[in-house]
Amino acid sequence: MTTLLTPDELEAALRTIGAERYHNLHPFHKALHGGRLTRGQIQAWALNRYYYQASIPAKDATLLARLPTPELRREWRRRLIDHDGTEPGTGGVARWLKLTEGLGLDTAYVQSLDGLLPGTRFAVDAYVHFVRDKSVLEAIASSLTELFSPTIISERVSGMLRNYSFITEETLAYFAPRLTQAPQDSAFALAYVKEHARTVEQQQAVINALKFKCGVLWSMLDELDYAYVAPGHIPPGSFRPQDDR
């Protein structure tokens, strides 16, 4: 970039990144909501995605500690509550475990991370470290994939309910609150970025942050696709489906 964008031009550039790079375009996602995966492959997706879900509040806590005002901290603290809940058994992480349980996975095994793909661990850890180490502006910008999440949630829920007899609305209960939480979160993050990215360098950093986050989500599906859709590529020690119907 060599020219400073207006706030609205910056928003348009960010939305273009989502249109081109968000993981709703990935073949694994299309197979997931299109009914082309086995139960075992869906178990692998849910097990690996658990590490991402469980790491989100830890990621947000690293940013919360660096936010300079009570107003910003109150806003970001809500994200921790959304994911961790206010007591055991509540919040998004607990609801994701209901999903893995509904798919027939042992909760203790999922939480142990013993079956995690190495690439999943690498991608998620890279995201946590990015938010911890980059500027507050870049960290907030990396959350802007939530601008695009309602679309992928709608596709995922409707497609999985339609195409898999072992999937129920209760199994997918994680997603319903995200249809309201994600737009609220992304509206705040977008407004913050548009206000505080005031130089060409800052705007470029914001754009790069969103590209990085899209790459994290894409690489997680790449890893799943290679390990579980392409036969014979499951790494040693990673989850091996028993039910391949």
TrEMBL record:
Is Oxidoreductase a UniProt keyword of this protein?
A: yes
Q: Supply the EC number(s).
A: 1.3.3.11
InterPro entries, per the entry:
Haem_Oase-like_multi-hlx, PqqC, PqqC-like, Thiaminase-2/PQQC
Please give the SUPFAM superfamilies that the UniProt record associates with this protein: Heme oxygenase-like (SSF48613)
One Pfam family here: TENA_THI-4
* An MF annotation (GO) of this entry: pyrroloquinoline-quinone synthase activity
- Report domain Thiaminase-2/PQQC positions: 12-222
**Keyword list, A-Z:** Oxidoreductase, PQQ biosynthesis
Which reaction is the catalytic activity of this chain? Answer: 6-(2-amino-2-carboxyethyl)-7,8-dioxo-1,2,3,4,7,8-hexahydroquinoline-2,4-dicarboxylate + 3 O2 = pyrroloquinoline quinone + 2 H2O2 + 2 H2O + H(+)
Q: In which pathway does it act?
A: Cofactor biosynthesis; pyrroloquinoline quinone biosynthesis
Tell me which family the UniProt entry assigns to this protein.
Answer: Belongs to the PqqC family.
Query: HAMAP family recorded for this chain?
Result: PQQ_syn_PqqC
Report the protein's function: Ring cyclization and eight-electron oxidation of 3a-(2-amino-2-carboxyethyl)-4,5-dioxo-4,5,6,7,8,9-hexahydroquinoline-7,9-dicarboxylic-acid to PQQ.
Q: PANTHER family of this UniProt entry?
A: 4-AMINOBENZOATE SYNTHASE, PQQC-LIKE PROTEIN
Q: What's the protein name?
A: Pyrroloquinoline-quinone synthase
Native species: Acetobacter thailandicus
Q: What is the lineage of its organism?
A: Bacteria, Pseudomonadati, Pseudomonadota, Alphaproteobacteria, Acetobacterales
Could you tell me the gene encoding this protein?
Answer: pqqC
